[in-house]
Amino acid sequence: FFPEWEMVELDSLQGAMSATPAREAYYRGEIQPNFFPQGTIDFLKAFQSTAIYQQLQEKYQQQDSSNLLE
Q1: Has this prediction a pTM greater than 0.85?
Q2: Is 48 exposed, middle or buried (0-12, 13-18, 19+ CB in 10 A)?
């Protein structure tokens, strides 16, 4: 996240998968099965039940880009 930088979209990346929508969906509690193999989906589902995921989800919802404290 660099608000002072202008967004430059590259034609060469049009139609390519971007991690941003998948990550945003994940922090909303959704897992998009068309982006991931089953083993990854299983891991992501299990990770959603951890305290670290809950902290990351809260930071996402609050638009807090600071690092997690241990």
Answers
A1: no
A2: middle
Domain boundaries, the chain: 11-61
Contact 32, 22 (CB under 8 A): yes
Q: What is the pLDDT of residues 17-68, one digit of tens each?
A: 778 888 999 999 999 898 899 999 999 999 999 999 999 999 988 888 777 7
User: Nearest-CA neighbor of 64 among 27, 15, 11?
Assistant: 27
Q: For residue 23, which of 50, 59, 51, 49 has the smallest C-alpha distance?
A: 59
Q: For residue 17, which of 1, 44, 36 has the smallest C-alpha distance?
A: 36
**Residues 6+ away with beta carbon under 8 Å from 13:** none
Judge whether 27 and 8 are in contact, CB under 8 Å.
no
Residue 1 has pLDDT above 70, yes or no: no
